[in-house]
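Following up on my earlier thread - several people asked me to post the actual chain instead of describing it. Fair enough. Here it is, all 147 residues.
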Amino acid sequence: MRPEQILTREPSPEEVVERIQTLPTPPAEHVAELRRKLAEERRPESATAWPPLLQNPRGKMDTRYASIPTSHRPLLGPPLVLAKRAFRLAFQPFINEIMRRQVEFNEAILESLAQVYEQTRENARTQAAWRKQMEARLARLEGKDAP
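Reply from S.P.:
Thanks for posting it. Predicted structure:
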């Protein structure tokens, strides 16, 4: 089969397997080098998880809900807690509406920070790989120049 024929129509799976079998076997050291490079560049499995740096702020991003009211006062404490709970129960829909835009802003900021964090980590990995490559090339060049 000529190359022009392959480009004009879709090859069948059998033809693809046949063409793959005609390819030469690469040297073992090239295969090992390629596997090593692929392993270095593989992203970690937890790339979608929140970075540890943002775990605490993520838990605090929803400002609409407060902690359960308590009081340390022995006599005035229970009426104060009851008043706080009644206030919260009565005004929670208004509090939610007032704080809605703040919550949306907090979520957007945290998402942006998580993306910046991941891009920074990816850049650091890329720079480390480049540095290793450049050091290896420099070592080869210095080895050739040595008398």
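The mean pLDDT is 83. That should answer part of your original question.
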